[in-house]
Amino acid sequence: MAEISIAYRNSKLILPKDSQELIINKRKGIDCVSVIIKSKSGLSHIIKKYNSRIKVISFSAIKNLSNQYILYFKKIGIKAIAKICYDYYHSGLVDFCIPNVKYKIQQASLERNDNLYNQQWFFKNTGQFNGIPGEDIKLEAAMEYLALNNINISNNINIAILDDGIDPSHEDIDNTRIIAKFDLLDSDNNPTPSGALTHGTYIAGVISAIINNTIGIAGINPNTNLIIGRISGNHMDSSTAALGIKKAVEFGARIINLSWGIEFPNPQISEAIEEAYSNNVLIIAASGNYFQSNNTKVLFPGTMDKVLTVGACDQKGKWINLRTVPPNGNQKFGSRYGRHVDLVAPGMQIPTTNYNIPALPFMPTYNYFNGTSAATAIVSGIASLILSIKPTLSNEELTSILLSSTDDISINHSQAEAIGFDHIGHGRINAFKAIKMVAQVI
Question: Which H, E and C letters describe the chain, residue by residue?
């Protein structure tokens, strides 16, 4: 059924397609539909005469709403009721006349049936994993905002994951969203990981796992297109990395996720990144993890000015260091820091997809992901969501939105911890504020 417009003062009320079910009431033993009017001064004798002319069966005042009444008619269709409302308004007798319909409510809650969704604390932290409620990226609030405001999401944003490959047969990864794939190690188009490497599959799940399929997790942006490039195994060389970046650009990437780093700058990779940036492709890279014997300096290419560099925080809203990683957790690590860190995102206990290694059938289908690699994937997913709302954003505009909408988590640290801006950059990413910021200017 087409939308129906009804005159109201100097504008029109539009009845959406999904809210045209008329309320049916019994009046004097007859199935009736109704309209609501607001008279200018009660039910004058002229209004009563008009009601008789248009065959109003009965009427009742609406309690606590001054001069508003429900008028009942023998059951007729929505178009006939709309005609009555139109004529009534133009009679000049009322301020408005509208059909009495059932409106479909847009619920301010986001339902997900993925069975591990409640463990994805970074969407909405309610205290999972001994975390602090509210210390999250406000992704659930962001998605509710998009739904309630009927904001359209483009499904043409391409994000490249340049890593050790992904498991393309994973039950929670939509193969139809993979628009390009390449393997620069084996020189073919099958980027399946070798051995027991799971890193790229972890990244893909965080960014784009299928939602509402009753299994596993929910991705941050399952509508994004993936470009999968296998550029590393246990090691990576600079030529392969540079070529991977170049190929991602050729395949139309808007974002390239680099959840890895090396200790020293490399001109081949630098040149490829500069070229990608000049083509309006945003590179998002991990600051890197440090361990007991490592130094804490940010890894390359995170040290480049034209790279968005991501550090990690935890479910208590704290920058991750050796002291904050739980003793019973995986290997203790900290998030590398320095002036190059732009922002932080959650990097502890992140549920995600695991590579279903054929040779190891006992391996779990899902696993927990820790570190700045996970944080980088989260930022890449949110960046792709922002571009999905406004694809015309430039690199500079996208970066500005991400950085200017962050939350200050320095307040969560005691003065004795000496956490500075070089540890958390502009703060923790806030998906709700970022999405609201861009949605208000489209």
Answer: CCCEEEEECCEEEEECHHHCEECCEEECCEEEEEEEEEECCCCCHHHHHHHHHCCCCEEEECCCCCCEEEEEEECCCHHHHHHHHHHHHHCCCEEEEEECEECCCCCCCCCCCCCCHHHCCCCCCCCHHHCCCCCCCCHHHHHHHHHHCCCCCCCCCEEEEEECCCCCCCCCCCHHHEEEEEECCCCECCCCCCCCCCHHHHHHHHHHCCCCCCCCCCCCCCCCEEEEEECCCCCCCHHHHHHHHHHHHHCCCCEEEECCCECCCCHHHHHHHHHHHHCCCEEEEECCEECCCCCCCCCECCCCCCEEEEEEECCCCCECCCCCCCCCCCCCCEECCCCCCCEEEECCCEEEECCCCCCCCCCCCEEEECCHHHHHHHHHHHHHHHHHHCCCCCHHHHHHHHHHCCECCHHHCCHHHCCCHHHHCCCECCHHHHHHHHHCCC
